[in-house]
């Protein structure tokens, strides 16, 4: 074949994901198990996306309803193709060709269970394939123990001759350490022709996609292998032990990138960051921190120890420790925790505070306002510069519906208040400690809503005679009398 000029987009990426994944022992399809905030299939599709393919086809079989639904959510442009019976990797690709008709140009095939593979490696595979003018280019790597995998066979002159499956290999062939990763770039037309010639005449009784390599070679076409230097990237996942290992590898990769970008990670072993999270320069991640989903942490913020953020936005120089923040926003220089729970819809303004044992849901806390201790704030709008005393509850639920509370600017809600929504505490208003506020408090007013205190003199000595309290009361009374005598 004549070498073609450098790459346009591949005609198609085909992802094989019909297998049963028995060793996962799971109700969930193997390729839907997640690591770093994405399914295995999602990682593979993200890597494939780096090729900008004209079409993406995903072969589905076992638990296909789950996989199809997942594709609809995360990759609506990807087309599922159903393989009713799993007749082997070659059979799977043949089914795709029956669906698409002839494909011209480069066709990339990849397994759905290799979440560590990067887009750069796939691009390098396609670039090598096209610049060498190959009919097939196999992604390969040298592994310490290739047991169970297909081996890349080479001629005396080093040219790729074919792939033999472990099951079908001779003892001598099993000594080969160059393994077939399960990713390939093909000439689409030649692949279409070769697929028609696959047999099931092998130890697996399946149509092997790998046989296309030998077929192309014996037809006199060029075949090649693109070797990945770092075999870790090519690791597949067949069980949950390998899933944990892949998760750790991916996390290390993400943390290393962040550290190189100027993020301090105090304890990489206990810090977990999802792929889509963004963390700016001079952020410090203390031990035992988990950043999930679409979380974004701005420059200079200090996170942890012991913090879980999910879909959270944290502003510059904010401080968050011993806290859980979900679908919530923490403003610049705001402080959260220790022991705080910010739930969906919460927005803490600049320099605002959510202190210890504080839960806030669907509420705005304005610039510089503080909710320092032991408080539940639900469905509230709190203005700027206000303070909520210790032990308050924003009573937002009447058993049927939720209602909002509004606290104005520079207001002072006393300790141990119940603000029974819907209710408004006006700008600059105060409420007395222990109040149950059920009526609006006008701006600047002091609301007192609690029982009047009544002291029943001498009650303890009369009603609890002989107790330590009564003795103490007696002594205090006698001392007082003596003081009075002086
Ligand atoms: C295959 C390769 C082997 C390679 C290994 C790397 C073949 C014949 N062998 O092994 O050389 O070292 O991958 O992991 O291709 N699948 C389908 N439909 C099927 C069969 C498989 O969609 O009918 C999917 C599976 O879900 C999986 C992928 O194809 O994602 C690979 O299948 P698997 O059975 O794991 O690979 P092997 O055949 O063992
Ligand atoms: Ca496999």
From TrEMBL:
The answer to whether UniProt assigns keyword Lipid biosynthesis to this entry is: no
Record keywords: Cell wall biogenesis/degradation included?
Answer: yes
Q: What is this protein called?
A: Bifunctional protein GlmU
Q: Which family does it belong to?
A: In the N-terminal section; belongs to the N-acetylglucosamine-1-phosphate uridyltransferase family.
Q: Which Pfam families match?
A: NTP_transf_3
Q: Where is the active site?
A: 373 (proton acceptor)
Q: Give the protein's cofactors.
A: Mg(2+)
**What taxonomic lineage is listed for the species of origin?**
Bacteria, Bacillati, Actinomycetota, Actinomycetes, Streptosporangiales
Region (N-acetyltransferase), start-end ranges: 262-486
Can you tell me which residues bind Mg(2+)? Answer: 113, 238
**EC number(s) on file:** 2.7.7.23, 2.3.1.157
* Residue span, MobA-like NTP transferase domain: 13-155
Gene3D superfamilies, per database record = Hexapeptide repeat proteins (2.160.10.10), Spore Coat Polysaccharide Biosynthesis Protein SpsA, Chain A (3.90.550.10)
Q: Subunit info?
A: Homotrimer.
Task: List localization entries.
Answer: Cytoplasm
Keywords attached to this entry: Acyltransferase, Cell shape, Cell wall biogenesis/degradation, Cytoplasm, Magnesium, Metal-binding, Multifunctional enzyme, Nucleotidyltransferase, Peptidoglycan synthesis, Repeat, Transferase
Q: Where is this region: Disordered?
A: 467-486
Task: Note down the stretches annotated as region Linker.
Answer: 241-261
Q: Which CDD domains match?
A: GT2_GlmU_N_bac, LbH_GlmU_C
Query: What is its pathway?
Result: Bacterial outer membrane biogenesis; LPS lipid A biosynthesis; Nucleotide-sugar biosynthesis; UDP-N-acetyl-alpha-D-glucosamine biosynthesis; N-acetyl-alpha-D-glucosamine 1-phosphate from alpha-D-glucosamine 6-phosphate (route II): step 2/2; Nucleotide-sugar biosynthesis; UDP-N-acetyl-alpha-D-glucosamine biosynthesis; UDP-N-acetyl-alpha-D-glucosamine from N-acetyl-alpha-D-glucosamine 1-phosphate: step 1/1
Q: Could you tell me the gene encoding this protein?
A: glmU
Question: Which InterPro entries does the record match to this protein?
Answer: Bifunctional_GlmU, GlmU-like, GlmU_C_LbH, MobA-like_NTP_Trfase, Nucleotide-diphossugar_trans, Trimer_LpxA-like_sf
